[in-house]
Amino acid sequence: MRTSSIGGLRFGPATLIVDEYEAANVAAHPLFVTLARRPVNMQALWLFVANMNAGISPNFVRWLALAIARAPDERMACLLSKQLADELGNGNFDHIHRRLLERFVMGLEPWRPERRGADLLRAGRRLGSRASEVFDDGSPYEAVGGLIVSEIFAKQADHCLGNEIRRQSQVPREALRWLDIHEVLEVDHADDSRELAELVPNDHAALTDTWQGARALWAAMWEFLDDVRALAFDDPAIDA
Question: Total domain count for the chain?
């Protein structure tokens, strides 16, 4: 099996990225562990969803479109185009995921924490900035690596969020369409991640960049959860 390396670490084919991160347990992050063991924390749910909206929604269509334009293989571009079409509602303006996520945030608005002068969206903005380093500034294969793990992470994180939302009945049903769609759709997109990884050639440059993008994007998303947890639980005024 041919390998590549980053900083002395050796990596195998890009399909091992999928194996590694599918085995990672996002539900074990302290944010989700804390949420699951306590009564439903509506303020924390607002913080999580609003920060996702702040970090992902303004950027994800651009990230995908740029990755498609720069894709080193037309088969990769084809897979990513399917995801872009989903993100843009498959031609239906009312089904654009950004609009649905904004509706989700509005459904949670009654539980927005009251903290005068606090930047409640700093976790999302930091995620957007760090992810842009992969998609805007990285190589085409770094973007591929980032997209491989982003869908795996999203599948697990959406499941954790869904578990919390199902413990309450206060959020209007119509506000939950984004979550309903994503809990199903991200499973399909995560399956696409393996197909995408299979298209990465086993040469040094491609493997190095793909693993580098995967590592960087996963770290950014994990630290996003750290930041949301700090917002939700490190300030006694929010821990309710």
Answer: 1
What Å distances lie between residue 36 and 39, 130, 157, 166, CA to CA? 8, 28, 13, 12
Look at residue 46 and tell me if it is in a domain.
yes
Concatenate the DSSP letters of all residues of 1-21 into one string.
Answer: ---EEETTEEE--THHHHHHH
Two tokens at 239? 């821990």
Structural domain boundaries enclosing 36:
12-110+122-233
Q: In Å, how far from its chain's centre is CA 113?
A: 23
Distances (CA, A) of 233 to 34, 49, 88, 144, 240: 9, 15, 34, 34, 9
Rounded Cα–Cα distance for residues 136 and 2 (Å): 29
Cα angle 113, 119, 120 (rounded to 5 degrees) comes to 40
The whole-angstrom separation of Cα 202 and Cα 32 is 36
pLDDT digits (tens, 9 = 90+) for 42-75: 999 999 999 999 999 999 999 999 999 999 999 9
**Residue at 4 is within a domain:** no
DSSP string, 195-232: HHHHTS-SSHHHHHHHHHHHHHHHHHHHHHHHHHHHHH
| pLDDT 10s digits, 26-41 | 999 999 999 999 999 9
Structural domain contains residue 211? yes
